[in-house]
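Severity: low
Component: inverse-folding endpoint
Summary: output formatting inconsistent between runs
Steps to reproduce: submit the following C-alpha cells with default settings.
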C-alpha cells in the first residue's frame, strides 16, 4: 500500500495520543527518575519527543521546498542535546504542554503537504538519498513508537524499584 498524507496523519495522531496517554499516567515522583546513569528519565523522553517533532516538522517542509537539499541531523545536534538537559524541577503539565506543541507542529506540517510532496527527495548525512515520506516515517512515526515503549519501560522499572526497595 502506498502511503498518503491522510493515512500518515491518521497514524501520527494515533501515536501522539498513545504517547500522551502513557506519559500522562506517570506519577510525579517517577518523572525524573532514571533507571541507569546513562538512561533518560520520562521527563527527558517527553522533552525529546516535543523537540524532535518540531524540528522534523520544519525539516520536512524545508526539504519539500528545496528538493535535493540535505536534511536531518546527527545525534550530536545541539538542539537535540539541549532539549534533554533538564533541571529536575520540570513538571508533567509543562512537559505535556511542550509535547502538545510538538504534536501541533507535526500536524500543521502534514496539513501543508500534498501526496506528491511525499516523493520529494534529499540527502541525509547518514542514510543518503531519501524521500519526504521516509523522513516522516523514520524520524516522526517510528520515533514516536520507539519512545512510547521507552516511557513504558522506564516507568515500569521505576515501579519495580519501589516494590523491591
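Observed output (run 2 of 3):
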Amino acid at each position: 500500500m502506498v502511503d498518503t498524507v491522510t493515512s500518515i496523519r491518521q497514524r501520527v495522531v494515533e501515536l501522539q495520543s498513545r504517547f500522551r496517554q502513557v506519559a500522562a499516567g506517570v506519577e510525579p515522583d517517577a518523572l525524573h527518575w532514571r533507571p541507569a546513569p546513562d538512561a533518560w528519565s520520562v521527563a527527558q523522553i517527553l522533552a525529546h519527543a516535543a523537540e524532535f517533532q518540531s524540528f522534523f516538522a520544519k525539516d520536512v517542509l524545508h526539504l519539500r521546498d528545496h528538493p535535493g537539499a540535505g536534511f536531518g541531523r546527527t545525534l550530536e545536534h545541539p538542539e537535540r542535546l539541549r532539549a534533554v538537559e533538564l533541571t529536575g524541577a520540570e513538571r508533567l503539565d509543562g512537559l505535556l504542554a511542550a509535547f502538545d506543541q510538538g504534536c501541533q507542529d507535526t500536524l500543521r506540517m502534514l496539513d501543508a503537504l500534498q501526496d506528491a510532496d511525499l516523493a520529494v527527495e534529499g540527502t541525509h548525512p547518514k542514510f543518503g538519498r531519501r524521500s519526504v515520506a521516509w523522513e516522516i516515517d523514520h524520524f516522526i512515526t517510528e520515533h514516536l513508537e520507539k519512545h512510547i515503549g521507552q516511557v513504558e519501560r522506564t516507568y515500569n522499572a521505576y515501579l519495580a524499584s519501589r516494590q523491591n526497595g
